[in-house]
Design brief:
It catalyses: an acyl phosphate + sn-glycerol 3-phosphate = a 1-acyl-sn-glycero-3-phosphate + phosphate. Pathway: Lipid metabolism; phospholipid metabolism. The chain is mainly alpha-helical. The protein has one domain. It is 72% helix and 0% strand. The longest helix is centred in the middle third of the chain and has 30 residues. It is globular, with a radius of gyration of 17 Å. The relative contact order is 0.13.
C-alpha cells in the first residue's frame, strides 16, 4: 500500500481519538458527549466537570488541550523524521487530523470543534502565526471569558498572519490547507456564532 495513503489514514484515525471524552469518562466518570454543549473539547470538559470537581475539571481541560494538539502534531513529526514524507503529504495529514477530530468515526462522525488539534498541526508549519493567534486567544479569553469568540478571533489572526509571514506558502505555494481547516472550524462553531450574534453565548468562569 502507498505510504502516503497509510499516513493519511493514520493521521485521520489518530486525530479522531476523543481524548476529552475518554479523560472525563476515566477520571470523572462523566460522559461529556451527553452533557453541556455535547462537545468533546476542553471547554466542555471544563464546564461539565467543574460542577462536581472544579480542581479536577481544570486539570482534565488542560490535559485535553495537550492531547488534542499532540494527536495532530506527533504523527506529522514522525512522518517527516522517520519516513521523510513530503511537505505536501504532511499538509494533507494536518487537514485530515482536524477532520478526524471534528468528524470522528468513533463517535458516529460527531466530534469537537478543531481548535486544539488545528493549533497542533499548524504549529508544525506556522509557529510564528500560531504564537500570534495564541496571544489573541489568551487576551480575548481572559477579558471576555467567551471561549468560542476567543477561538474564532485567534483563527482569524492566524489566517491574516499567514499572509504576512508566508504570503507565498513554502513548497505548496497555496493557503488552501489553512482555509480548509478554517472552514471546518467555523462550520463546527456555527451554533456558537448564532449564540454570539444573539448575545446568548455562555461565558467560561
Amino acid at each position: 500500500m502507498n505510504e502516503n495513503i497509510i499516513a493519511y489514514a493514520v493521521a485521520y484515525l489518530i486525530g479522531a481519538i476523543p481524548f476529552g471524552l475518554i479523560l472525563a469518562m476515566v477520571f470523572g466518570k462523566t460522559n461529556i458527549a451527553k452533557e453541556g454543549s455535547h462537545s468533546i473539547g476542553a471547554t466542555n470538559v471544563l464546564r461539565v466537570m467543574k460542577e462536581s470537581n472544579p480542581k479536577l475539571a481544570k486539570r482534565l481541560a488542560v490535559l485535553t488541550v495537550v492531547c488534542d494538539a499532540l494527536k495532530g502534531l506527533v504523527p506529522m513529526i514522525i512522518a517527516k523524521a522517520f519516513f521523510d514524507l513530503s511537505d505536501q503529504t504532511i499538509w494533507t495529514m494536518a487537514v485530515l487530523a482536524v477532520l478526524g477530530h471534528c468528524f470522528s468515526p468513533y463517535l458516529k462522525f460527531e466530534g469537537g470543534k478543531g481548535i486544539a488539534t488545528g493549533a497542533g498541526v499548524l504549529a508544525y508549519f506556522l509557529p510564528i502565526e500560531l504564537i500570534c493567534a495564541l496571544v489573541v486567544w489568551f487576551i480575548v479569553g481572559k477579558v471576555l471569558k467567551i471561549s468560542s469568540l476567543a477561538s474564532l478571533l485567534a483563527l482569524l489572526t492566524l489566517i491574516v498572519a499567514s499572509f504576512v509571514f508566508h504570503y507565498d506558502m513554502p513548497v505548496i505555494n497555496t493557503h488552501a490547507p489553512i482555509f480548509i481547516i478554517a472552514f471546518v472550524v467555523v462550520y463546527k462553531h456555527l451554533p456558537n456564532i448564532k449564540r454570539l450574534l444573539c448575545g446568548a453565548e455562555r461565558r467560561v468562569i
